[in-house]
Amino acid sequence: MFKQIYKAIKRYDTIVIARHVGVDPDAMASQIALRDSIKLTFPNKNVYAIGTGTNRFSFIGKLDKIEEYSNSLLIVVDTPDKKRIDSARVSDFSYVIKIDHHPFIEKFANIEYIEDTASSAAQIIMELILNTKLLCNKDIAEVLYYGLISDSNRFLFNSCTAKTFSLVSTYLKNYCIDISKVYQNLYLRPFNEVRLEGYIASNMIVTDHGVGYIDITDDIQTKYKVDSAAAGNMINNFNFIQEILVWVTITEDVKNGQIRISIRSRGPEINKVAENHNGGGHKFASGAKVETFEEAHSIVNELDKVCSLYIKDNFLDEEVI
Ligand code: AMP
Q: Distance from the CA of 40 to the center of ligand 1, in angstroms?
């Protein structure tokens, strides 16, 4: 299928690359690396990476603005469903390609390359480049590395397979990626975020069956001088806590009038619960947006039931988990 994708890229003079709303480093890295690789390979094509950006990830690269895209190709990365595509309408394009690593939700593209066992969308772009005539350089390789390590939380998950390490090895060898620079850019944070992390650790509530959750209200964000995006992204720092199987941050986003739920798991599958509330994601990393803290807490209750079943099915000791 990589050859088919390459042929479609070759056919179009204007190519728009989009990804999901609520940008994260993997989505942004995938679209920027693919854009830059296509531009390097075909300097005369117009290639745009679009969507709402954030200063937080400006080290990954710059996004583009586009007004005219008649008769063009749309490539959607890291997005399983139409409704979560940021700033592009599928029906406005002549041809559409989806490249994704989420569980399948709906078909919306002419070519759909879905590998839901891949560590990240960036990993798939790495493979696409290696298996076609698309070119790469050190900058593009580093952008792809940002994507892969952020979605795999630095190779923590089972989604990191022999294929992942083999691709990373090839890219490290071919492009001399400066990994300490990459980690500095991705992980350096202001002290107030660390202080908020301390607040979360001290105030997380744990349910009977091991769901840890925390309400990060607007007042708390003001107190710790962080925005809702920074607060919502704290979720990945709470892995490996013996007493919790599933953990949830419930972050008030006053600017957009919504509450963002981020869920992570070290065993029970959580994406069905997120889907029940108009959200989604992966088996062990999901999210949703709700309107009230009440609905957020009902998600916590559902997750508690999922954990209860998981504890029974796996003969776990409830005292320890
Ligand atoms: P987050 O907790 O925001 O980092 O998201 C974790 C995973 O859940 C990512 O794969 C997201 O694409 C997915 N996700 C987050 N929020 C939503 C949502 N409102 N609807 C569908 N999927 C979501």
A: 31
